[in-house]
Each structure stands twice: as structure tokens, then as C-alpha cells.
Amino acid sequence: MRKLVIASGNPGKIREIERLLAPLEIQVVSQSVLGISPAEEPYSTFVENALAKARHASAASGLPAIADDSGICVDALDGAPGVHSARYAGAPLSDERNNARLLEQMSGVTDRRAHYYCVIVLMRDANDPEPLIAEGAWHGEIVQSPRGKRGFGYDPLFLVSQAGLTGAELPASRKNRVSHRGKAMRKLLRGMMQLSWPHPP
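RE: above sequence
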């Protein structure tokens, strides 16, 4: 079975990616399990940060690596938190603190439109000149107060209009069908299959 390292220490993100990779029977290991420190994310775009993370994990592990960079982009805040979503409230990193800051920034704002955005990158090795890159978006709006216990990140604040539920109220299987990361992963999987990857080592 082919092994692949996920360039993330976020348990929620790792669980989602593992579920989405399950059809390919790939053994997935997180970089934290291998003792790999997180990569720097100095860039202003999702794709540059995702590439940096995948390259770092592959170089440190000697394995193919998958990385995503994702965040929530709020129309009324000119796209913020965006690439800074995980660090929106500063240190210590906390979903609860990030959510609280977003609600504070949205106080009195009537335009609640927002979307999640995700870029996922697969690098077959650290010097892969043709990394696979896929993206996905998930549109909704910001609610007035947190709802739901599932999911992670800004899911309790992100209302999926068609469902009438927040990301934290959706069952995992349903979320994976419609979410930004689910859409990006399906595109990436199609690219992997077209390349006949993974192939036997």
C-alpha cells in the first residue's frame, strides 16, 4: 500500500482528508506523527502556502505529500480572514477565539455573505516540477451566533443556505459532498487517477 504524508497537524482536517482518500487505499500519516514541524506560511495566496507545506513535508519525510491551505473569506470584510483564518485571533491558536473575533468584526453588518476556499496540492517528491493542484469553494453566510457541535474552524458560524444548517450541524458524510475541501479533493483524486497514481513503489 502506498504511503502519503499529510502536511497538517489539524485533527479535523486530517480526518476529512483521510475519509476522502479512502477509495484509493492509501496509507495516510500526519506530519506531526513523523515529528515534522509545521512549515512557514508567509505567502498571501492559498496556493503558495499549500505548495510550501507540501514541499516541506515531502522533503522531511521522503514521502509523497499532500497539503491544503484553506480559509473563510467574508465579503463585508474584503475577503478576511482569508489566508489568516487559522491565526485570525492571534496566539494561542483557537477555533473559539477565531470565531469570537469574526463575530465581533461582523457586529452590526447586514451583508453576511461568505465562502470557504481551499487549495489542495499533491507533490510526489520535494522537487516535483508538476504538482497536482486542485481548488474548491463553498458559499454561504455568517450566522449571528455559533450553531452545532460537528466540524471545526468556522463551521459553527457558516450557514449553508440550501440546507438551512451550519457546517457544524451537517453530518460528516454530507459535509464532504458539498464542502470546499470535498470539492477540491475530488478534483485532485481525478487528477491522480489520470496519472495512474498511486502506482506500486
